């Protein structure tokens, strides 16, 4: 069989380039594998003389003759001869299948046991909806036919539907309820094969549509729609089959590596290295959306089928079972209904969706949204009404996209559907990210949000026009569909759109300004000293007024939270909130304090309640630290540092940890400054599974004492660390640093995903003339052991790191090092160039 499979696989790859646009033939390969498997299994079953005592059936995917290279083999064995006592040959049969290299899922039951399990277990029941006899006599087949024929006696349609709905909701939630993740699971993700299967299972059991032909002939999908559904199903099967062949683990996941490999094998022509992958994945996202709509339509159709509620008139609409539909189906003469139906959904909390026939009508008539439609003031007012909806806004916008209405009305939105983002920062396509931004805004407004956003909830509900924030959220990344500076492109497009909606010049300019500057707050909070009065003054001058600041702050927070769940944390929130409040004070015309005044006030607020001895310890140390140090920490952080110093001997090395910023680690280190200290510390952190997100490295003016603060994630950060846990970690760091505990070797293997999608490394240098220090900034893709390798370069050139700003943004890092030579002088231009070259080589 192996030789046959090798030949089949070779034939598959020869056909693969054609398959991307015409994947129907994938069923030949699936069935061929199934046929060969049938022969092998049946022959083995008969060789062991099992056919007279047992019936052998293929179930699940195998029952459908869909065997992928990594598929499990699901079989059901029905015991016919109740007198048999010796199961030795049956056990040998199963063992043989495993020996042949098959992953077997099997059950052995008699008639009574089978009826019992099928009536109790919906998953077992489901597997028999696609049974197929392999080796079974008349009696065995009659047993199965009787069960399937009387299936309603075992599991009622309503129970089956409800179980499948719960099952699907749980599965979707595990994938963040989106088919637009950049590395989807082709079997289980929303829009995957499981969505198609779930839909067909419901059609089979709840609508008695057991075959594809019966589904085609039912009045659920048009011929055009079902052609698209079949093609989408075949395309996802094609990708799963090919991933199974090229991957050795997680074989149903369309990983970045698989995307690259498949794009090459498909011979997709492109100018850029990532463009061929982009083309492949846009096809995937399109087909996944088709399967999602197929699945959603069937669930909606069952809800309609199962209701006996009377239709209620509602103006131009009817409402039945909390779904709204058109009374008049002539949209050509009633174009106003296209937006009006969404206005109505937004006005009523009880409306959960659109009648399936109405949804199909809207989709088929999306082309009515032409240039004349877009210029119509009445339709513009309707769209603004939709954005002001008190209810259901997130689901309304998603539905508008699924029906083709959003992309018809906003051309730029259509240009980013399914567009990947090769920055290792975003984990969603541009359109999915956009929806999540607006959803976050909506949830923040209705206070359907985690604790810690009370201020933002109050602020968003004070905005004079919420639609301004939503439109900025919709347009902030739409410029990515055109290439170039997406902020500038989006700013221009959003201005034109706002004016087309009839919004005032002020509102249109505000939206445009927000889109243009949507990255500004994040950049400042990550890269600059947000307690430095000059930083605040510059940002306040850019904002000019509180209105802009309020809108920009809310846009920024909801943008970052919709980018990648792993990069949002309490530390980032705290930085943004501090920048917001400091800038607000400046715009409120509160007198801008000098850095010296800020430092003095901050120190006084901390030491005023200390005893004289403790006060002397703190003030004597802090007067030896550059004043900029006190601008980089909040008062609460400085207070914690002071308490840590006081609790220890005056000359003792201090390594204190605490869990802060929603489960991140904050590490404060006061230690004797030695050559290579930073390198040693980052090696220790790497060995202990501590990943640095942000670092502040400082030394006293005489270079004798180092005061370093790190914000880090821990490999066990999902677990709430106790005080004993942080104490234990602190002890380990001290022990390794002192040499009493051995440092484990750090794994610095490269991440193949990063290798393929890494952004060009940018290394720049400048001089801080005021401090007489060199500055080197490195922007690159993060990788294992990167910080250690950078620290090794600085040490090899005998360079002292005075301070550093380590910023990790998902898979991207932006690290800035303030350096000087061992004599506290500027480093020569020649040496700086050598350092930059060495850094580029290790990255």
Automatic annotation (TrEMBL):
The keyword Hydrolase applies. It catalyses: [protein-PII]-uridylyl-L-tyrosine + H2O = [protein-PII]-L-tyrosine + UMP + H(+); [protein-PII]-L-tyrosine + UTP = [protein-PII]-uridylyl-L-tyrosine + diphosphate; guanosine 3',5'-bis(diphosphate) + H2O = GDP + diphosphate + H(+). One of its GO terms (biological process) is regulation of nitrogen utilization. Uridylyltransferase (UTase) activity is inhibited by glutamine, while glutamine activates uridylyl-removing (UR) activity. It comes from SAR86 cluster bacterium. GO terms for molecular function: [protein-PII] uridylyltransferase activity; guanosine-3',5'-bis(diphosphate) 3'-diphosphatase activity; phosphoric diester hydrolase activity. This is Bifunctional uridylyltransferase/uridylyl-removing enzyme. Its cofactor is Mg(2+). Residues 666-753, 775-843 form the ACT domain. Modifies, by uridylylation and deuridylylation, the PII regulatory proteins (GlnB and homologs), in response to the nitrogen status of the cell that GlnD senses through the glutamine level. Under low glutamine levels, catalyzes the conversion of the PII proteins and UTP to PII-UMP and PPi, while under higher glutamine levels, GlnD hydrolyzes PII-UMP to PII and UMP (deuridylylation). Thus, controls uridylylation state and activity of the PII proteins, and plays an important role in the regulation of nitrogen metabolism. Belongs to the GlnD family.
């Amino acid at each position: 069989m192996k030789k046959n499979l090798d030949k089949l696989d070779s034939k598959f790859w020869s056909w693969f380039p054609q398959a991307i646009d015409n994947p129907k033939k994938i069923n030949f390969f699936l069935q061929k594998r199934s046929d060969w498997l049938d022969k092998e299994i049946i022959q083995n079953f008969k060789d062991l003389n099992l056919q007279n005592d047992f019936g052998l059936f293929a179930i699940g995917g195998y029952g459908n003759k869909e065997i992928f290279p990594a598929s499990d083999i699901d079989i059901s064995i029905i015991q016919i001869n109740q007198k048999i006592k010796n199961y030795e040959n049956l056990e040998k049969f199963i063992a043989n299948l495993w020996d042949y290299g098959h992953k077997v899922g099997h059950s052995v039951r008699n008639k009574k046991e089978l009826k019992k399990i099928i009536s109790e277990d919906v998953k077992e029941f489901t597997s028999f909806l696609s049974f197929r006899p392999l080796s079974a006599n008349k009696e065995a087949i009659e047993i199965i036919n009787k069960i399937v024929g009387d299936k309603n006696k075992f599991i009622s349609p309503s129970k089956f539907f409800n179980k499948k709905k719960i099952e699907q909701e749980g599965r979707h939630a595990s994938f963040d309820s989106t088919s637009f993740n950049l590395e989807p699971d082709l079997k289980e993700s929303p829009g995957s094969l499981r969505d198609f299967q779930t839909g067909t299972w419901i059609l089979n059991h709840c609508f008695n549509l057991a075959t594809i032909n019966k589904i085609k002939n039912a009045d659920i999908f048009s011929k055009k729609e079902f052609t698209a559904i079949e093609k989408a199903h075949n395309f996802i099967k094609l990708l799963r089959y090919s991933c199974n062949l090229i991957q050795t683990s997680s074989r149903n996941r369309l990983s970045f590596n698989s995307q690259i490999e498949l794009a090459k094998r498909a011979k997709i022509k492109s100018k850029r290295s990532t463009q061929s992958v982009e083309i492949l994945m846009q096809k995937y996202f399109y087909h996944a959306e088709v399967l999602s709509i197929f699945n959603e339509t069937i669930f909606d159709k069952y809800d309609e089928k199962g209701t006996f509620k009377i239709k209620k008139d509602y103006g131009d609409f009817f409402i039945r079972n909390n779904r709204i539909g058109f009374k008049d189906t002539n949209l050509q003469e009633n174009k106003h209904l296209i937006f009006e139906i969404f206005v109505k959904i937004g006005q009523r909390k009880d409306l959960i969706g659109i009648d399936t026939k109405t949804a199909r009508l809207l989709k088929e008539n999306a082309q009515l949204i032409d240039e004349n439609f877009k210029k119509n003031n009445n339709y513009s007012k309707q769209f603004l009404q939709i954005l002001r909806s008190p209810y259901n806004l997130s689901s309304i916008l998603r539905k508008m996209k699924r029906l083709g209405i959003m992309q018809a009305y906003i051309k730029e939105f259509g240009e980013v559907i399914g567009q990947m983002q090769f920055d290792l920062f975003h984990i969603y396509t541009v359109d999915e990210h956009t929806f999540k931004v607006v959803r976050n805004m909506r949830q923040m407004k209705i206070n359907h949000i985690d604790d810690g956003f009370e201020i933002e909830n109050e602020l968003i509900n004070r905005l004079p026009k919420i639609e301004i924030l939503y439109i900025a959220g919709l347009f902030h990344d739409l410029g990515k569909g055109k290439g170039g500076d997406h902020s500038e492109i989006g700013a221009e497009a959003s201005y034109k759109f706002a004016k087309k909606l009839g919004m005032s010049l002020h509102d249109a300019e505000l939206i445009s300004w927000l889109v243009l500057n949507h990255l500004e707050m994040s950049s400042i909070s990550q890269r600059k000293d947000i307690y430095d009065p000059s930083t605040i003054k510059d940002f306040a001058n850019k904002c000019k007024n509180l209105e802009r600041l309020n809108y920009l702050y809310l846009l920024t927070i909801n943008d970052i939270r919709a980018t990648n769940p792993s990069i949002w944390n309490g530390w980032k929130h705290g930085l943004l909130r501090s920048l917001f409040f400091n800038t607000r004070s400046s715009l409120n015309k509160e007198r801008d304090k000098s850095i010296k005044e800020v430092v003095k006030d901050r120190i006084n607020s901390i030491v005023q309640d200390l005893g004289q001895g403790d006060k002397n310890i703190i003030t004597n140390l802090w007067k030896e630290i550059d004043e900029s140090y006190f601008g980089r920490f909040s008062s609460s952080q400085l207070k914690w540092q002071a308490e840590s110093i006081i609790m220890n001997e005056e000359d003792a090395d201090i390594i204190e940890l605490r869990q802060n910023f929603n489960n991140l680690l904050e590490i404060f280190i006061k230690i004797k400054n030695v050559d290579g200290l930073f390198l040693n510390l980052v090696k220790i952190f790497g060995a202990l599974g501590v990943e640095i997100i942000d670092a502040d490295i400082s030394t006293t003016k005489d270079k004798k004492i180092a005061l370093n603060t790190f914000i880090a994630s821990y490999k066990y950060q999902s677990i709430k660390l106790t005080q004993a846990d942080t104490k234990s970690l602190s002890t380990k760091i001290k022990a390794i640093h002192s040499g009493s505990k051995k440092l484990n070797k750090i794994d610095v293997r490269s991440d193949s995903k990063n290798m393929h999608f890494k952004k060009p490394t940018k290394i720049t240098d400048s001089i801080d003339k005021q401090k007489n220090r060199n500055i080197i900034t490195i922007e690159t893709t993060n990788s294992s052991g990167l910080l250690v390798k950078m620290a090794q370069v600085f040490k090899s050139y005998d360079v002292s790191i005075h301070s550093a700003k380590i910023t990790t943004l998902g898979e991207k890092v932006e690290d800035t090092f303030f350096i000087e030579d061992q004599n506290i002088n500027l480093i020569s231009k020649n040496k700086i160039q050598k350092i930059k070259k060495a850094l580029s080589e290790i990255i």
